[in-house]
């Protein structure tokens, strides 16, 4: 046979599934996230984290080649996320689903993971309820209640009693508002106004005026990382909230490491609670930062989503090793339950009961380090579970 004919015959056989050897030599990971649109950074950060892991740990596990398939939701778009997940499961026969920056997309994919028995590794989406929506979900990122409740302790201990809350009006924002407010009030503080802003294209100026008029000690903020945090801090600066003596306390989404250098001096002094800072001092973080910069030289500073993706890959490599490269959904979940990971943020555990991450929540302050702003950790709350579970 001529070479072209052989190639065509092989291709046809492969299409019919007559040559499964190739598929069996590969472990496939389908990564679903926004790579374009207003949340494009989420996918890019995750891709950077995945590449950093693979640059450091290779692309073969238990004799199998790791293949990562990236899919862009352009989101937030739950419908597209769900369709992409179905394609990945049915057509590509992926062994793992991963990614998920935004809660609505994670929630839309949960039934697909459940039906296909495909492990789904959540690398950001942080509404508490997500992990209860399928037995095949494990989360390596955070939950908003986990991050926000400690701020309710820190605030009152540090003389912040009268607070206005501002959150994005969807799952993680509502979770943050509830967990922070309950803890603050339990400690004797008071929420004088609770403001919710739309997830899409929020206009912060009028809300910021309302905060100013309420004259609180501080404003507590959760907005999804990226453009919205930039917009909020711009409004805060322009409307003179700092001059009025109103502090910003927030989840670390507001001072996301990736956008922080572009946010200007208005962020200096902002106090946040969070699970990861690029300024975290540990050998694991040093290795991560180095590998990220080498694998994605133009990506800027990695943030918490890059770290969760790096840790998610760590989890997938651990599972693949334990199972000798033969991935089965139920066996994979058994390995994930109780798994320990030496993360760049510090050690984390996947809770055996809830499949949710248990970790230290740090209190940080934005300060200049070597001329550039960083979230400098100065206090911590160890072993934090999602408080709702
Ligand atoms: C989410 O949609 O769950 C989400 C998005 C961005 C964040 C945190 C949570 O910074």
Describe this structure in words.
The protein is globular. It has helices spanning 3-15, 21-24, 40-57, 78-90, 103-116, 144-157, 171-186, 205-214, 227-238, 283-295, 304-322, 329-336, and strands at residues 26-33, 60-61, 64-72, 96-99, 120-122, 137-139, 162-168, 190-197, 218-222, 247-251, 271-274, 340-343, 346-350, 357-369, 372-384. The protein has 2 domains: 2-142 and 281-355, Rossmann fold (3-Layer(aba) Sandwich), CATH 3.40.50; 145-274 and 362-384, Rossmann fold (3-Layer(aba) Sandwich), CATH 3.40.50. The model is unreliable at 13-21 (pLDDT under 50). α9 (227-238) links the parallel β9 (218-222) and β10. α3 (40-57) packs across α10 and α4 packs parallel to α5 (103-116). The chain is an alpha/beta fold and 389 residues long. It is built from 12 helices and 15 strands. Helix content is 40%, strand content 24%. The strands form 2 sheets. Strands 7, 8, 9, 10, 11, 12, 13, 14 and 15 form a 9-stranded mixed sheet that branches. It has a 6-stranded mixed sheet with strand order 2-3-1-4-5-6, sandwiched between helices. The structure holds P-hydroxybenzoic acid.
